[in-house]
Design goal:
Layout (H helix, E strand, L loop, with lengths): L4 H10 L3 E3 L6 E3 L1 H17 L6 E3 L4 E3 H6 L2 H4 L6 E4 L4 H12 L9 E7 L13 E2 L5 E10 L12 E11 L1 H21 L5 E4 L6 H13 L3 E6 L8 E10 L1 H6 L1 E2 L7 E8 H12 L8 H7 L2
Parallel strand pairs: 3-8, 7-13
Antiparallel strand pairs: 1-2, 4-6, 5-6, 8-9, 9-14, 10-11, 11-12, 12-14
The structure holds adenosine-5'-triphosphate (ATP) and zinc ion (ZN).
């Protein structure tokens, strides 16, 4: 049984799991919600402790120049978030404050800074690994806040949320094998938590008419897979984890090479942490103390 979208939203708020902000897709995390998120992320860490991932931490903003270099605006301008600030002198400062107080348009007085909000946790990583990879490539782990401008009433579609990502860089065969293994592993992990997970090929929400073609190509080349769990509905289950094989898209731009000197391949996988938490809540109920013992044992060992 799934809660309806309204009951889910009401239940999340009624149990202080989420603290609304008045903006769609932006909410605070209550103590219990944050505990679920942290426990799941810790479980992922325990499961992968022997994988040899290098764990890095980045801020939720990226260099504006990196967004440009990645071609993000070619593909997803509708999702982008830019950080602007005030660069004026005293008179303009008084003016912008007055406009804000009196409900006039003050944003036009801001100018872009050097940073944009990170739309994916892994983007910061690639430019740091230009040059030759070690013999077996690299495995990186990051957990980061991301922003996507997709305001929605669905409790699972946020504007600001966290992703736990792993990023693999290496020779093509290694990277594809890693992705395939993880698809199994991710399914197994989520099923063990009682989630009704299935996987499917997927595509990104590329912008506009050319975007439709890019999405079709992505499916055809099987570059993106998702693990889906019914949350809002059984017919359109929600992606809780995505697997992306970028081929040489990032490695080409940043000169990431294998030990053999060829352009490397990269792939990443990302668990949407809030989505996993909401999928668990929708499956097992609003009070984690009442969740099945075998699920609790894994998250609260
Ligand atoms: P969707 O198809 O649902 O828009 P996506 O395929 O664009 O998601 P990715 O870009 O691959 O998602 O992001 C990795 C993971 O981040 C997803 O599997 C999902 O769990 C989570 N995620 C993506 N968008 C959102 C969002 N707006 N709110 C909450 N979690 C999200
Ligand atoms: Zn990624």
């Amino acid at each position: 049984m799934l809660y309806s979208m309204q009951d889910l939203q009401r239940g999340l708020e009624g149990h202080d799991l989420v603290l609304p902000s008045g903006v769609k897709g932006v909410w605070g995390r209550g103590e219990v919600m944050e505990d679920i998120i942290r426990r799941f992320n810790d479980l992922v860490s325990r499961e992968t402790k022997d994988d040899g991932a290098q764990e890095l931490q980045y801020p939720p903003v990226l260099a504006r120049s990196l967004i440009e270099k990645l071609g993000y605006l070619d593909n997803f301008p509708q999702l982008a978030g830019s950080v602007h600030s005030f660069f004026g002198k005293d008179a303009e400062a008084r003016e912008i404050a007055r406009k804000a107080r009196e409900g006039e348009d003050w944003e036009a007085m801001l100018q872009p800074t050097d940073v944009m909000l990170a739309p994916a946790a892994c983007y910061a990583v690639y430019p740091n690994f230009s040059g030759m990879l070690p013999g077996k490539g690299r495995l990186i782990s990051v957990t980061g806040w991301v922003f996507r401008h997709e305001p929605s009433d669905e409790p699972t579609r946020l504007q600001s949320f966290r992703m736990r990502e792993f990023i693999r860089m290496g020779a093509q065969e290694e990277v594809v094998a890693w992705r395939d293994t993880w698809l199994e592993r991710g399914m197994e992990l989520l099923k063990r938590l009682g989630l009704d997970a299935k996987s499917d090929v997927a595509s990104d929400p590329f912008f506009g008419r050319t975007g439709k073609m890019m999405a079709a190509q992505q499916v055809e080349q099987r570059l993106k897979f998702e693990i889906l769990v019914p949350v809002i509905s059984h017919e359109a289950p929600t992606a809780v984890c995505s697997f992306n094989w970028h081929q040489d898209h990032f490695s080409g731009k940043f000169g990431i090479r294998t030990a053999g000197g060829e352009t490397a391949h990269t792939a990443c996988l990302g668990f949407g942490l809030e989505r996993v938490a909401i999928a668990l809540i929708n499956t097992h109920g609003f009070d984690p103390a009442q969740w099945p013992a075998d699920v609790r044992k894994q998250l609260w060992p």
